[in-house]
Amino acid sequence: MTEIEYDVVVIGAGAIGENVADRAVQGGMRTVIIESELVGGECSYWACMPSKALLRSAALVRTARDVDGAKQAVTGDLDVAAVLRRRDKVTRHWKDDGQVEWLNGANIDLVRGHARLAGPKRVEVTAPDGSVTTITAAHAVAVCTGSAALLPDIPGLAEADPWTSRDATSVQEVPSSLAIIGGGVVAVEMATAYAGFGVEVTVIARSGLLTKNEPFAGELVQQSLEDLGASVTIGASPTRVRRDEGTGQVTIELDDGTSVTADEVLVATGRVPVTIDLGLETIGLTPGDWLPTDDSLRVLGADGGVFDGAGEDAWLYAAGDVTHRALLTHQGKYDARIAGDAIAARANGRTLSLTPWSTHAATADHAAVPQVTFTDPEVASVGLSAAEAERAGIRTRVVDYDISWVAGATIASDKYVGRARMVVDEDRRVLVGATFVGLDVGELLHSATIAVVGEVTIDRLWHAVPSYPTLSEVWLRLLEAYGRPTE
């Protein structure tokens, strides 16, 4: 057994782990990152990048067909094989040479293998050849192992060999029919993608679509999916799943007495942390659990360090999905930057402030998380929904506007469908949430994010003049609907 020491050990070389390691190195820490699969992680090979590549081509064709003058030029069908080839290019054919080269340039060492904690500040790595290396961290270990698809306990489901999001985004041959269990982001994005391929899609969503968003988001996405030819079943739950040995098809029995049969079934009902085989039991934590953290991303409750916020000697950090703070790559990278900076600062003897919006506090996780769901129409949101604001005890005013009425929408599409909502804290007269649904609304989101994070008052927002004719004009219309500024 080989033993080596680093200042910082990062477990998981996805986008989040890379950012923790990069910031630690910039802070003067000798850092190693450990990865059992591909450097670059879930987002690069099985999630964000391939899923958006699968969605893009059909979305462009639909957009062109909704603009007179362009629609006449669309004379053929979508080339699904070409879409899959483009997806393969985006994922670099599931090879991580470029990501490894980036690690080398950033002075981050790489060890390949499966990592398990073996006590405070100790990590054992089993290489593909079976050899074991023990790596000791002088200052900190950061867990960035992410999450995996949740497989619900439905009789027969596991035996039916269902797809998870990884299968849906890396498929090499598109099935004729696909049933999707779930109504969240993965479910509706993959339903949109596969319906765009001409696949017969059925979505089974017990509680509805995109239920964490404003209600109109799920309603507009459901209408769009049905317009694309997909079937959406709301209010029914699977009770049993079986795959026919002869035809290979999967049948899903529902509790309303009906059933759905398809070539494949995609399970998109949630995520679980990748911590089951991480050695958490050696440091007083429970294998398979999420890793809760403070706002500098120190893990709460680990043996061998102070974890009540009073001391500076806690050694275990976590960032990304595994913390269950916000299961989004961009938010995980935000946390990762804070974690890496905090590790380096504490190693250099600095006492850090965790007051809201300070340099080393991940405050945005609580009140200003942006997200774009790349359906057709897109759903873009940041901050609190109206219901969340109400539950938080905020005295709010909700303002809605039909985006199709702005000039930019008229230019963008002859069939524009969209809606905008802003949620205002009436006591402070600041925006606490915004949601946009429509073509290209993802490009509106960062302006809303800045307004929420910066706590820009409604009176000041009146002086942010939107360009004409763009979709950004919706900001002016929302403010006009809210009312003129105070004197």
Structural notes for this entry:
The chain has 487 residues and is α/β, with parallel strands linked by helices. The protein has three domains: 2-40 and 96-148 and 273-364, 3-Layer(bba) Sandwich (FAD/NAD(P)-binding domain), CATH 3.50.50.60; 158-270, 3-Layer(bba) Sandwich (FAD/NAD(P)-binding domain); 377-482, 2-Layer Sandwich (Enolase-like, domain 1), CATH 3.30.390. Helix content is 30%, strand content 24%. It has 15 helices and 21 strands. It has helices spanning 15-26, 41-45, 48-65, 80-90, 97-105, 165-170, 185-196, 215-227, 329-347, 364-367, 386-391, 407-412, 445-453, 458-461, 473-482; strands at 2-11, 31-35, 109-112, 114-117, 122-126, 132-143, 147-149, 177-181, 200-205, 231-234, 238-243, 250-254, 259-262, 264-267, 271-273, 316-318, 370-373, 378-383, 396-401, 419-425, 430-438. The strands form five sheets. Strands 1, 2, 3, 4, 5, 6 and 16 form a seven-stranded mixed beta sheet that branches. A five-stranded antiparallel beta sheet has the order 17-18-21-20-19, sandwiched between helices. A hairpin with a 4-residue loop joins strand 4 and strand 5 (122-126). The longest helix is centred in the C-terminal third of the chain and has 19 residues, at 329-347.
